[in-house]
Write a structure and sequence with these properties.
Length: 445
């Protein structure tokens, strides 16, 4: 995809966003459902899977490692896995495209098998840090055969035939890192423990339990967790229902808040508390977001009814970052339309996402006439309130789907149009985004 010609797109001031939609399945759960299904003997079924490029690359990787995966249509999949420790040597390199999650989780899963695997990705993924996952995996017995500078992709890893269990205190709040260690720990005898000072999304833990593993999570310190997995379980095939992705719902949701006269319902959005920091923050800003028809489908879900709201600037504490780590771009858009300043604290991890999102967010707003300051790891957006967001800028998307979608949402309510240089990467996480938004009333062309 990175070699294709860029496809620019422009968002223009639009009439009200109106309607009821279900955004695609959760990306984090989709990757994990495929990987755990591939590590389970018997037939695992999945419904609601996100069929975006990132997850399809993980599916390809699982096939290359010996699992059978069938795409039945409409987000339904059937998987016949190979069992814990049962991955086969793949015939060639595994290409994860743009996906840090797919790549880091599979590095962990492969590290517990006696196979040698080469991992690669696009220019964005090649620039992202992999040392953070390699460090604990080397302690478990995996060996880096070769890697680019600083342990980056392309990298070749020789997995451990007899992996060792590990107790690991994670130096960064990263669910990908935690998950890589736990997936490697599945093949190790005894207990593998990950300690995180700040709790991150717990989908791996929940799904491991669902597949029958013994895993216990206890509070640790003020905001952290200590997670212990009993290694070498016999995973049992199950059905996984993937709920709608709150990180994808965030885009139409903020569009409805900032485009005057809007009322939108987003169906069955996952409300795992480790993912809902954005909704908390938007409510503090004055957003009208109602939760209707709450359900528990392995994860809590609800229909979210959103109405246009007058927003005010707020101070977002650093402790909230793990529960909204992918949402700062779209929060910055909401903050640009608010009255007063919004300070977002503790955004260090944003620098190592699909792009340097701290710089890219500031740039996205500045080229559209919004003042932004970066002070250390904090970002301050000076809201335009009743003056309005000027718009009129072209935003560089830096191979980052969330920059593309955030910039377009800004253009639906700004005075002048907002153009993005490339919309191609939206397909990594939100297939059908442009058509879905047009169906709600968005002017995108
Ligand atoms: C994810 C974890 C987060 C997040 C990413 C998905 C996951 O990354 O940004 O989009 O599914 O585990 P980090 O683990 O790097 O924080």
């Amino acid at each position: 995809m990175s070699s294709a010609a860029p496809t620019p797109l422009t968002a223009r001031r639009s009439g009200p966003m109106a309607g009821q939609i279900r955004v695609p399945g959760d990306k984090s759960i989709s990757h994990r459902a495929l990987i755990l299904g591939a590590m389970t003997v018997g037939e695992t079924t999945v419904s609601g899977l996100l069929e975006g490029e990132d997850v399809l690359n993980t599916a390809k990787a699982m096939r290359a490692l010996g699992a059978k995966l069938e795409r039945l249509g409409d987000g339904n999949w059937r998987i016949h896995g190979v069992g814990v420790g049962g991955f086969a040597q793949p015939a060639g390199p595994l290409d994860f495209g743009n996906s840090g999650t797919g790549c880091r989780l599979v590095i962990g899963a492969a590290a517990g098998c006696g196979i040698t695997v080469t991992f690669d990705g696009d220019a964005s993924l090649r620039s992202r840090p992999m040392r953070r996952v390699l460090d604990p995996l080397e302690k478990m017995g995996a060996r880096v055969v070769s890697a680019a500078d600083g342990g980056r992709l392309p990298l070749t890893l020789q997995g451990a035939s007899d992996p060792l269990p590990l107790e690991y205190e994670s130096p960064v709040p990263s669910a990908q890192l935690k998950s890589a260690v736990l997936l490697a720990g599945l093949a190790a005898p005894g207990e593998t423990t990950v300690i995180e000072a700040e709790a991150t999304r717990d989908h791996t833990e929940k799904l491991l339990k669902h597949f029958g593993a013994r895993i216990v999570s206890k509070p640790y310190g003020d905001h952290g967790r200590r997670i212990t997995l009993q290694g070498q379980p016999e995973l049992s095939p199950v059905h996984v229902t993937v709920p709608a992705d709150p990180s994808s719902a965030a885009f139409p949701l903020v569009a409805a808040l900032i485009v005057p006269g809007s009322e939108l319902t987003l169906e069955s959005v996952m409300l795992n508390p480790l993912r809902t920091g954005l909704f908390t923050t938007l409510r503090e800003m004055g957003a009208s977001i109602e939760e209707l028809d709450k359900k528990d489908e392995g994860e809590e879900t609800a229909n979210l009814r959103v109405r246009t709201s007058k927003l005010k600037g707020v101070d977002v504490p650093a402790a909230r970052a793990p529960s909204m780590i992918d949402e700062y771009l779209i929060l910055a858009v909401a903050a640009a339309f608010a009255e007063g300043d919004t300070r977002m604290r503790g955004l260090k991890e944003l620098r190592v996402k699909e792009s340097d999102r701290l710089e890219a967010t500031a740039e996205m707003l500045r080229v559209n006439g919004v003042k932004v300051d970066i002070e250390g790891d904090d970002m301050i957006v000076h809201g335009m309130g009743t003056t309005g967001v000027p718009g009129g800028g072209e935003v560089k998307t830096h191979m980052d789907h969330r920059i593309a979608m955030s910039a377009l949402m800004m253009g639906l309510a700004s005075i002048g149009p907002v153009r993005i240089d490339d919309s191609a990467f939206i397909a990594t996480s939100f297939p059908g985004f442009v058509e879905t938004m047009r169906g709600l009333g968005a002017e995108l062309s």
